Amino acid sequence: MERRTIFATSIRTFCLVIFIFQFYLLTRNYLRFDVRKEVINYIANEIEIPEVRLLIPYQFAFDLNFLRTKYKSSFDAICRKFSDKDDCDGYLTNSVLFSKSFGHLLPLSDIAEHSFPVKRFINKIYWSESSEDPLETGKCKITKKASASYLVLELRCLDSSGSPLRVSRSKAVVFNSNYLLDFSLNATVMLMKLAYPGKALVEDSSLHAYTITNKGKLTSCGVRFTKHTENLLPPPYKTMCKNYDRRQVFEECLNNNSLTRTGLLSFATAVPLDKHTKLYFNSPYLNQNSSALEIYEDCLALVNQPRCNSVRYSFKMTTNLQDTASGNEQIKIHFMATSEPDSLTESKPDFPLFDYLILTGSLFATWFGISIMGQLLSVSQLLCLTFDKRRAVDVESLNNEPVTRTKGWS
Question: Is the residue at 78 inside a domain?
Answer without folding.
Answer: yes
